[in-house]
């Protein structure tokens, strides 16, 4: 048993299919909208992150440039003869010489602390350990926004001093809470400073520690040059202690996600995208520094969310409008179709057809409804017409049965007259009666329209003999018909009118000189029957061709040969029929073009 695929939609009516179509169109749009928004958010995050990486690189380069510039300045200070000649433990210098040296160092550090490019100033301060208090005249009141040389004893040693000495001359950034030991009434001394111990070139030991304060202002200034709104920028040490930042509020340390662990990385950049923030981290393990850009995702995607809301509103409006349009077309399309289906299901041929609905509309549905109602009315008319025709056909059949009695009676009567005339010696009359009887019998042909060529030649021969007896025509008849063509069919009463035309319009008044030739040839598919006469009258062949082939017939030209031509075409097709032409020897030739057809009758 052959199993075919069954379309499940065939089980649904048009209403259900339209609802399904609506859902198929709407649901993918929601899915694509959600997926598109998600991908757009991901792409936006990635593009913004890449932009922030480049900005952070610029910031990090600027900060490193500033630190490198400060390091060069500290190297210059490191090599200065005044600094290298400073020795608090020496007893050879007088107090006056120490005062002069102190004043020169103050001027030197003040000179380096002056800025000429309108940037935030840096303050260079030198802290020297003076256990013997040989520089007792130098005040010890350090300030983060003041340059100077400060000598301190053991009880005044800053907490960061020994750490700086342990670095052995390597500079580093440090967030200093107190430049001097904390004391009551002390001003705020918190500052980000570049700290570097100064070692003696000529002998071992540490001269002091050079502190460049107000670094947070200078680095913050560099950070602000390329910062982006909505973000927070943090400059931290390797342990995430905030050295300086551009943020509204922050604690001493910056909380980073676990993904921000740098491991053994030395120098580079790392980006992290979480649900809440985007982090871009530039780091340098050698300098123990990090520059971290933190951007809230919600602030970043606020504009995109606004666009998403607009798209969603447009989508909802589109769906609502589509639903309204669907309802409108439902009322204007499905309601008339449902009424039409109801009518088609209840209609039975012959029943009264109600008035056509929706006649005022001009759309295709109204045309369909009008056509079906009109078709139903025409079907009713055809049913009534067929019923009437059946009655008339039965009446005609009865009439034909009655009329068939008359030809048989006529045949029998003509046969009786023929035998009586023969017995009385009127042979000429008897022969004419015999030919007439044969002519009428073949003309009726028992109701057949197509007969064999042999029967048609017999019919034409009877007509010729009858005419010769009637008018004493002396023309000659020549026949040249191959025997193999006699079984092919031809419409009855085809040759007789053409022979009649040849007699009347050709050889009627020529006596023994008149000649009519009936011949036939053939090829693989067609038969060509020719009737020729040697008449001397002029013939208008163009008028004959117009008579045969024009769609509108002029009754003045008669119906004979046109009737034959049309009957041949109706039976066999438009490529067959009659063709008139002039004979080369004089006279007229008409050619009958027929197919090779054999029709069998019971």
TrEMBL record:
It is found in: Cell membrane. Keywords: ATP-binding, Cell membrane, Kinase, Membrane, Nucleotide-binding, Phosphoprotein, Transferase, Transmembrane, Transmembrane helix, Two-component regulatory system. Its EC number is 2.7.13.3. InterPro entries: Bact_2-comp_sensor_kinase, HAMP_dom, HATPase_C_sf, HATPase_dom, His_kinase_dom, Sig_transdc_His_kin_internal. One of its GO terms (molecular function) is kinase activity. It catalyses: ATP + protein L-histidine = ADP + protein N-phospho-L-histidine. The chain crosses the membrane at residues 18-36, 310-330. It comes from the Bacteria. Coiled coil: none annotated. It is a multi-pass membrane protein. Residues 431-598 form the Histidine kinase domain. Residues 331-384 form the HAMP domain. This is histidine kinase. The gene is yesM.
